[in-house]
Records
---
Amino acid sequence: MKWWRDAVIYQIYPRSFADSDGDGIGDLPGIIGRLDHLAALGVDAVWLSPFYPSPQADAGYDVADYRSVDPLFGRLADADELIASAHARGLRVIVDLVPNHTSSQHVWFQEALAAAPGSRERDRYVFRDGRGDGPPNSWQSVFGGDAWTRLPDGQWYLHLFDAGQPDLNWDNPEVRAEFEDILRFWLDRGVDGFRVDVAHGLVKQADLADWHLPMMPLTGPGAEGAPRPPMWDQDGVHEIYRRWRKILDSYEGERILVAEAWVQPAERLAAYVRPDEMHQAFNFEYLEASWTPADQHSVISRSLAASAAVGAPTTWVLSNHDVVRHASRLGLPVGTPRPNGIAAGDPQPDAGLGLRRARAATLLMLALPGSAYLYQGEELGLPEHTTLPAEARQDPTWFRTDGASVGRDGCRVPIPWEADAPSYGFGPTDRSWLPQPAAFGELALDRQVGVPGSTYELYVAALRLRRAHALGHGELTWVPTPGEVLSFTNGDLLVLTNFGPVPAELPAGAEILLSSEPVAGREVPTDVTVWARLT
Ligand code: GLC
């Protein structure tokens, strides 16, 4: 059974999900204790951001040991128990794999530092001599500043992200063999797949040619014929994923690979999900589309066509741990470029409008054929924390840009479970590694369960109907509709989103099954999505 073709996959950010020991940082036992929430919500799988030993220079995306669990999050036995407990509830488990770089504390990098230029140890990473007194080329780190750091012996090492995240050299067979072994290690423990971090970055253009355009977003300029950045989306990455696919296919059950590849246009992204490569790729073009019927229509059509051309399911995503939560992003004026975090001094999102549009956007997304990704807390309608004090910020982006870019902490704030408990029920104490905003109290899970119209109950109802009507397996047919309206059918369901200021009318005989806000009669108000059955 190709469960992944229509799966709803819930992203857990372990630091911020649930804290069992009261140290203010979430952990694996905390997650195990909250699995019933995910089963009740009705998702099919979870994806866990990294929980491996790490100095946490980039919240765990700097891995020092790929085959263990950081004591911050628990022990390897907890990972085993988590996998078993999730499986017992019918939930699949996807873990994060970070192959573009290791932590600078990884034993390989420590060996490389101790070894001489030109040594086998240095060849596992990207070490180069500089140009004169400067770095080997003009590349900038995605987090800001130079992408190179100099050692006392004069050589430089490449890090597309933080200096604590040296890039591996994927031309080195030892690196390839090591990651194939890491895949097996986790497959043997029963995981159902891997989310592959920076999947478009592993192979660099051999000449490491200079690049003077911005590094963010992590993609080429998209337009046909535009030059491809020498550090992203090189053709050589595909050979790696073909090897990995063979390994996954040698295991029983349908184990999957999911590409985090910030690659445009959709046709280039589709190359990652050809039949002998990965199973899915995140659809960031969809995440970035503005809240207008024209943009939504074109990105949905393009995405469906591009994935159909290679026989892969389309995926949909609105939020994750790297972007401003969609309940806040959609509360910014339409057309605002996607912000990298929001600071207290920035124009603030309209919270009410943002949540209303987020609910409409989610209902639209969950009606689309393919697989959908949810990010922890969006089922509560959580906003971005936009007023985090400077001293609380931890994202390396904040430090590497001297605060010019606030970074991603605002979407990573620990989850509120109980309105009246310390840390809103995140853990047994009032400690929380990022402070929670006061607005989280009213949004706590216990304030929403069983409350008609709550965002939580909207997600539960949508996931139940999505399954009952097999929407993930369905086919989308656009229904031409006047006004600023998007409408389509999927199976026996009619879906309509009204983006415009004038109410949109449902066809006669449409019976509303679910709507993102109350609808009286057949008039669908502004920024509302409706699922209806035609009778
Ligand atoms: C990915 C992760 C992000 C991390 C980066 C470097 O984009 O999602 O959180 O900072 O890779 O590993």
Note: Residues 293-310 form the longest helix (18 residues).
---
Amino acid sequence: MTKTMKNIDSFGHLRGESLFVDDIITKQNTYIGLAFDSPCAHGKIVNIDYTKAEKVEGVAKIFTYKDIVGVNQIGGIIPDEPLWAEDEVHFAGQPIAFIVAKNEIIAKKARALIHIEFKNLPVITTAKEAKSKGSFINEPRSFVLGDTNNSFANCEYVFEGETFTNGQEHLYLETQGCYAYPMENGNIKIISSTQGPTQVQKAAAKVLDLPMHKIEVDVTRLGGGFGGKEDQATAWAIMAAVAVQHLKKPVKYILNRHDDLRMTGKRHPYQSSFKIGLDKDLKIKAFEAEFLQNSGAAADLSPAIAERTLFHATNCYFVPNVKTTVYSCKTNLPPNTAFRGFGGPQGMFVIESAIAKAANVLGINKRLIQKANLISENDTFSYGQVATKTEAINSWNSAETNFDLVHIENEVNDFNKKNDRYKKGMAVMPIAFGISFTNTPMNHARALVHIYQDGSVGISTAAVEMGQSVNTKMLQIASETLGIDPEKVKIETTNTTRVANTSPSAASSTADLNGKAVLKACQSLDKRLVTVAAKMYHVNEYKISFRSNFVFIDDEKTKHLWQDVVAQAMLERVALSENAHYATPKIHFDKTKEKGHPFAYHVYGTSITTVTLDCLQGTYEIDAVKIVHDFGKSMNMGVDVGQVEGALVQGIGWMTMEEIAYDETGKLLSDALSTYKIPDIFSVPKTVEIIALETKGDEMAVYRSKAVGEPPLMYGIGTYFAIQNAIQCFNNKSNLTFHSPYTPEKVLMDLYKKEA
Ligand code: MTE
Ligand code: HPA
Ligand code: MOS
């Protein structure tokens, strides 16, 4: 396999030739759409007056819930989200109407002329307040293993504390958008920047009251999704589709950055509390946590994200007695949604904080507790899955020796002895992340492979390319399996008429699910062509193979090309297309018992982070992050290392500088890149070193190349604790805060904190 293949989009991206939704050449008379959203976070709509706006020259129509033919409902897991608000609004930024006009300037002008009056209702912005008022999305869920109560009584040490992790803006380079146009017979085609084409199709069918087959959704690629387009690309696509249904004209809607920031949900902020019990050997005997998820005003994916928080609440540690509970708290913020890690990072931060708290009070190094509790073979996770092929201890040990942890620590200590104003800190962050959609029925995909008679190949799957290079991996699998050059293979757009009933591209599982389907389809086709070639040469089938476009007999290259066999197959009327289905075997989960085997496998790894802190200013630099990561047998190291680096930096941003702020009225304050800071080249670690852990991989991963999209984000959590470690070297208090992001302001507070 060409394991060094570059992302097949790199050439097009570099030259600016790749097509995103806004680059598609539009049809004549394409209208532009623009949502009118609520300025009020919670209120009754007393009056709306569209008359002035409607009169603006060039406005085709202003759509509201009254124009919906089907149901005004886009909720995926729970039907609690209208497309357009009716008589009440539940968050600032909630769409109320959709202006369709000749161009954007006209649409904006009309939007400014809509007059709306509200009767304000009480606004809840925090999860804690929601809980105190009994405002929830659904019932809380708990995972229980063993008996925490009894166990705490026998623990040598018990510590309690509270944590907070803020939300995170996806900041995909390509904002949300879609382009919808009428086809014949009332059919509608939607080009959408979505991770979930079927989700868009299904929800559009309901809102437009059409059968799904009348709606075709097509995705070329996304300029990033990061989870933000798993569920939240749907609304805009349907708005445009409703307009198409009425106007029978093409409608495009690309959100500008401000509108996107204001109207879309983000990573869920969590307010959590923990109780941890250890024995005298630092073994964690019991762990309890209560997670308050700030879900926003509607369910969106919150229940699934809450569930994953519970799955990852003990990270890569074995804890025999666990009780974790998560509340999805309903607030008046835009519905929060999937973001790389899907609630896992929020869960892991809490146990890492609990361990840090224990270490801070005991006056020992956090890593002693971490290391003493790494999960090993045949230990059980709190949800009943038995850990097999665990790499937690392996990856820890490998990081410790390869990066010489003791040496790093000595350097930090030496520096700290010599310096007063500046202090260095370090932290180790081991991770374990479960691969599969936690909702078992979602773990399937299909591939449709056509071999054309000239020997070129077209592949359709459910995979959406969003920068993670899944198309490159699909192409590698096809060219390897068919024995042909990558140039012969084209990856088609993701389209609901070619691959139906897809799960979104998410859960880091896209390459596994779709790759296994491509593999199956190509293997079937290969077999057919082998039969044809064997007949051509009058030899047994087992002697035939295809390599680098040529037919081989035994190990001898023949003069015949692969495409000659394809041409012969065509003459013999052999089917040159194949559709394959893959559904992850072995996984199951019983939600009534909260036990099962939900994950195909886990991804492990360990990072070591060092930082330098300016104890006068509270500012810091990340010196280095050194990672041993479990890629399994990576099928494309360039791509996979890119995923680790990108995820790491995204995790660091979440932990250190990305600060979402809403005021008490529910208005987003961090509504521009001047007030929402993401990592730039100056704030990334000065050194990033990544070593692949030598493992056999897992047969559940395609080509044993483990999923890589989300897990490395959680290495970023190490940054928080490295900073805290530096603070301790300056101000050794046991009551430091677990409140991310650790912005310089908060770092300063901890630097000069007094004992409680
Ligand atoms: N990488 C890039 N460049 N852009 C993205 O939008 N999304 C991440 C991750 N890596 C993303 C990315 C998220 S949230 C997921 S779930 C996975 O990619 C999805 O792709 P995969 O299943 O192919 O790993
Ligand atoms: N991960 C990511 N996205 C999802 C999941 C999951 O486990 N379940 C539903 N959507
Ligand atoms: Mo990723 S959060 O599963 O799209």
Note: Residues 16 and 384 are 49 Å apart (CA to CA).
